Amino acid sequence: MSGRAAAYFLLYFASAFLFLSYADDSTLTPSQLLGDDDDDGGRGNLISTGGRFELGFFSPKGSSNRYIGIWYHSISDKATKVWVANGVHPVPNRSGRLFVTADGRLVLADGNSTVFWSSGNVSTVAVGAIARLQDDGNLVVKDGSDTVVWQSFDFPTDTILPGMKMGWNRTSGHNISLRAWTNESDPTPGNFVMGMDLNGVPQELVWNNMVPFWRLGPWNGQYMGGAPEVIAENLMDYAFVVNSQMFVYWYALRDPLVLARITLSSDGHIVVWAWLDEAQSWISQAEFPRDVCDYLNSTSSCGPYSLCSPTVYPTCACLEGFRPKNQKNWDLRVWSDGCVRKTELNDCRTDTVGFFRLRNAKLPDTSRATVDWSMINMDDCKALCLKDCSCMAYARANISGSGSGCIIWTHELIDMKFYNNVFGQELYLKLAARDIPSRSAYSRSRRLVLIVLVPLSAAFVLICAGGFIWYTKRRNTSEDGLTIDEGKGLELDLPLLDFSKIVDATNNFSTSNILGEGGFGLVYKLENKTKSTLLDWQTRYDIIVGIARGLLYLHHDSRFKIIHRDLKASNILLDKGMNPKISDFGMARIFGSDETEVNTRRVVGTYGYMSPEYVIDGIISVKSDIFSFGVLILEIISGQRSKTTYYSESQINLLGYAWKLWKAGEALKLVDETLGTSFPTDDVLRCIKIGLLCVQERPGDRPTMPITVKMLGGESAFIPDPKQPGFFNLKNHIDSDSSTKRSSRNNVSITLLEGR
Ligand SMILES: *[C@@H]1O[C@H](CO)[C@@H](O)[C@H](O)[C@H]1NC(C)=O
Ligand SMILES: *[C@@H]1O[C@H](CO)[C@@H](O)[C@H](O)[C@H]1NC(C)=O
Ligand SMILES: *[C@@H]1O[C@H](CO)[C@@H](O)[C@H](O)[C@H]1NC(C)=O
Ligand SMILES: *[C@@H]1O[C@H](CO)[C@@H](O)[C@H](O)[C@H]1NC(C)=O
Ligand SMILES: *[C@@H]1O[C@H](CO)[C@@H](O)[C@H](O)[C@H]1NC(C)=O
Ligand SMILES: *[C@@H]1O[C@H](CO)[C@@H](O)[C@H](O)[C@H]1NC(C)=O
Ligand SMILES: *[C@@H]1O[C@H](CO)[C@@H](O)[C@H](O)[C@H]1NC(C)=O
Ligand SMILES: *[C@@H]1O[C@H](CO)[C@@H](O)[C@H](O)[C@H]1NC(C)=O
Questions:
Q1: In a domain? residue 491
Q2: pTM above 0.85?
Q3: Ligand 8 in contact with 221 (CB < 6 A)?
Q4: Based on CB atoms within 10 Å of each CB, which residue in 206, 471, 525, 656 is the most buried?
Q5: Is residue 479 part of a domain?
Q6: pLDDT tens digits for range 134-146
């Protein structure tokens, strides 16, 4: 080791004489040292030509080890590292120096010639090499004739940047995969790896300690089959190229000015991030795995020949033509045995079998499947499956355009998921003819649906709501820890508002001002005054208007359309002047300009603020934020929290109570007692009415933000009468929560400011 290091040093000193140092922020020449110490005579950090990226030494949060890494130079967040050179061998102190040898090696060593990292052996020794940090975040070493001899994009850590290729380079034999950090303070490669599984039909996988953890599935011409939601993100174009030279996957940004990246987190999740100037933070645009159905080989995984549906309970169901292998276990919700055919296909006679078309499916594991890319016609694919006695199923390999390619499964079908009617693919299952449901049976069941179920649909919706609450609770306690709906850990990690503004607003974090912990972390109460004067009518009105302006900005005036998704009292911070600031963009979604709503399987948010269409159908739109805003208005006026308040005589929540009073012409009874009678009745009534308009059951009935702001400001002569609010009857969907009590009416400011 030290012998090689000494050789590097010789090369370094020799080359120092050959190269004149020239000033270029993005370039490291053999005559320069990039040192960690201020007085080691080295040069400063590398900064890419466009100023987007920076390379230098850093210590991760909570560690004193020194690493060479690349981060964004152009934004306020410098903590996010997109690449780390010496994750395996940290430098324990500031003695590290990075240099490039004239023959094209990047070396990180200390003054005593211990080598911590090097870019390895270059097959052909380069002449006149330099290293340059490009504006796409790629650190490249080029020789004198401008040929790339090494690049960091070929050795990623936990981040794929736009333009970086993942997969297998058949020319060089090199495989590019992501390796997660051990944890946020330790870039040592951790347990999780994301890469291409080239067995059978190539698919993307995440492994945990070499064991498959979850499967993104094969590329289908548009997206990885197990992550169809990425096409709804509208930020990136994904691509996949298979030819004699390579087998690679990459993505490009639709708007080159947007900063976005994809990471593999230390718990094995893949997250698509976009930087939002408005929030001064990275916003997660998509995250996988997203539900119980995505995990391979976990206790919740459905066994072979069964279909997992994340929103239905029981989550696993046998495929058409199959029955549980072990009925007893199946009834106990132990799914691992899976299902078996009702009727065996033992004689392989083509006249006794047929195909059942399963729609909206995540295709089964393809690691033992085969693909014929040249097959264009699906009838040929069917014929191939019919002819092959061991064929279980077939599907189209490429769903884009007219479609081409034929995938054939000859082994057991595992890891299938059912998507809603937007996503997923068609899979043709080979079954004994007698197990294929006939058309007439289908139409009978359709009629049954119409005759029996439709009148019961209202009841069904309520059952779904109850089921969702139950499911959320179960999810929060499940070992898989899928989505932390109300988990503080998730939210506390996120950098939110401009730090200096918070310091200012909280009197430099004076601890006497700590009121409680909220979604943001700590929410600060401001000095002065008694509770009632703190929140007089004018203050409350100004807060409502301030939040409305903030939302107007997010929905309509910022560069992107932003849906906050988790608007609630604890996400509103008040500064010294009692000006509200919307905080915690950890769940926000960026919408494309032509998008009005998206459908998500991952319903996250805070109960009490979520609109019915979001809870039940996963539909996100500006109208779901407006519902939450309406809840906030009613909370601010009444001093009551929607979540914990109910009115025992009739089992209705705050929305129901406000609605009841409104209909009875007694809306002023809603107003917080501590306001006494010192408020302008007309203004208060107008605000209550607007609150009720915002929480109306049908999204289409709720006003948009521009109209809401106008109505609040009294600029709108006509304000329509509100219709029935969504989710106002508590009894029907929260009967299990015996701990819910009528909250006392004297905790006004706490209600507004405290965390959950
Ligand atoms: C820095 O750490 C190295 C061990 O890698 C050690 O040999 C060296 O003495 C340390 N230098 C200082 C100044 O502490
Ligand atoms: C080199 O090693 C010596 C002895 O171990 C130590 O005193 C010195 O600090 C080291 N120098 C650097 C730059 O690490
Ligand atoms: C570099 O080459 C040397 C000598 O051929 C060899 O011993 C060493 O393992 C190689 N290092 C790497 C990283 O390939
Ligand atoms: C694959 O490797 C070869 C040889 O190193 C290189 O020239 C080529 O650009 C690489 N291809 C891709 C797609 O990275
Ligand atoms: C890359 O993956 C391919 C296909 O699995 C394999 O044949 C090859 O050996 C791998 N290359 C390296 C360097 O691991
Ligand atoms: C990160 O991992 C390292 C090594 O396993 C461990 O020593 C350290 O305590 C961990 N840090 C955190 C913050 O989990
Ligand atoms: C499931 O996990 C077990 C043990 O962890 C392992 O032996 C088995 O190969 C895994 N199965 C799959 C399909 O990954
Ligand atoms: C999938 O089909 C589209 C449109 O027909 C075509 O452009 C694309 O190259 C195909 N992809 C693969 C991997 O065959």
A1: no
A2: no
A3: yes
A4: 206
A5: no
A6: 999 999 999 888 8
